[in-house]
Design brief:
Blueprint (H helix, E strand, L loop, with lengths): L5 H11 L5 E6 L31 H6 L1 H12 L9 H15 L3 E6 L5 H5 L4 E3 L2 E8 L13 E2 L5 H6 L16 E5 L14 H10 L2 E5 L6 H13 L3 E4 L10 E4 L3 H12 L9
Parallel strand pairs: 1-2, 1-7, 2-3, 7-8, 8-9
Antiparallel strand pairs: 4-5, 4-6
Helix pairs in contact: 1-9, 4-9, 7-8
């Protein structure tokens, strides 16, 4: 990518202009595509919604058929937790450090349930759709369930279920015996149903941010509506990095390059060093 690319040049200038303010970065599945994780609504051949109906990812379906719900999620997650960050994730970590050194903040609001931002080193991070590395009790009010509790996926008992899927092997809560569920936001649930989604923090960030940057998102869920509308109402500089999308609204500058190329290029233009991938 050439430094003179108009969208990139405008983004670099906008970031330079807010040394003591908040930069809000909202990431979607597109940022993880280069790490080998398919998108949902994207154009890549393995996009999840090309094969699966969204009805499966609901609380209604889980309570109707927890066995099939667990089977579907285990198939969907597959080797998700084995994936590693790509240059886009590492570039956001570098930008977070750079902004902090200038007296400001950079907050990443990720719609992804993978752990790539954490692995890369992002500290100021909201996982607004939950986490694939944790599960929780399906009984609301249980210490391991909503609105506050969860458990590590490792050791939850899913290995027995993988070997012999059925009601008898469903992973169960060690505190109350109820069936465990994925610690993710389902399509018929609300953002404020669990404290881990940090919805109030997202609202505050959308209101306060001086620059809004979207990376690899299709603007199809509530969090992107909130952040985009806040940016446009306040007249904030707003950018989208995605090779396959048009501008979602007037005033949004689109950089049509993959995130793993565009974000390191932004860092290079700002003179910000990006850590190399760990071996």
């Amino acid at each position: 990518m050439k430094p003179s690319e108009p969208g990139l040049t405008a983004l670099v200038a906008a970031l330079r202009d807010v040394p003591r303010d908040l930069i809000l970065v909202t990431t979607g599945a597109g940022i993880s595509l280069a790490s080998g994780i398919p998108t949902f609504r994207g154009t890549d051949p393995d996009a999840v919604w090309k094969r699966d109906v969204t009805e499966l990812a609901t609380a209604r379906f889980f309570f109707e058929d927890p066995v099939e719900s667990w089977r579907w999620y285990l198939q969907r997650f597959g080797n998700l937790l084995e994936k590693r960050p790509n240059p886009a994730h590492r570039a956001l970590v570098a930008l977070e450090r750079w902004q902090a050194a200038r007296g400001g903040d950079l907050l990443v609001v990720s719609q992804n349930v993978d752990t790539l931002h954490e692995q890369a080193g992002s500290r100021n991070l909201v996982k607004v759709h939950g986490r694939a590395d944790r599960v929780r009790c399906s009984r609301v009010g249980c210490p391991n369930g909503a609105p506050k509790g969860s458990l590590p996926r490792a050791g939850c008992g899913e290995e027995a279920f993988r070997r012999d899927p059925g009601k008898a092997t469903l992973p169960r809560c060690p505190a109350c015996g109820s069936v465990l569920r994925q610690h993710v936001l389902l399509f018929d649930e609300c953002y404020d149903e669990h404290e881990d989604y940090q919805w109030e923090r997202v609202i505050a960030g959308a209101t306060r941010a001086a620059v809004q940057l979207f990376v690899g998102t299709s603007f199809s869920v509530g969090v992107t509506d909130l952040v985009l509308n806040a940016a446009l109402l306040q007249g904030r500089p707003t950018f989208l990095i995605d090779p396959g999308l048009q501008s979602p609204a007037p005033g949004v500058t689109v950089i049509r390059d993959p995130a793993e190329e565009a974000l390191p290029a932004v860092c290079a233009a700002l003179g910000v060093a990006v850590d190399a991938a760990s071996v």
